[in-house]
Amino acid sequence: MIKIRLRRTGAKKQPSYRIVVADARAPRDGKYIDMVGHYNPLTEPATIHVDADKAAKWVQQGAQMTETVERLFAKAGVLEQVRPPKAKAE
Question: Residues 6-18: pLDDT tens digits?
């Protein structure tokens, strides 16, 4: 299974994160397939940069977002571009 998740970078006590596409079995800071953005929680306000086209491509190919990444995408305003709303079942 492929996941879109966070990969920690930065020095001790100064975290920053890369938003990456990786195999679910890979370690948190291990090998990844593609980088789709970055997140720095220490800036005021927090810096979130996402390549929405890349992220949407991976979601269409079956990659699943973690809950944290989904919240970050919503905060950055790209969740609707990455995952269009589902059609109502009538």
Answer: 999 999 999 999 9
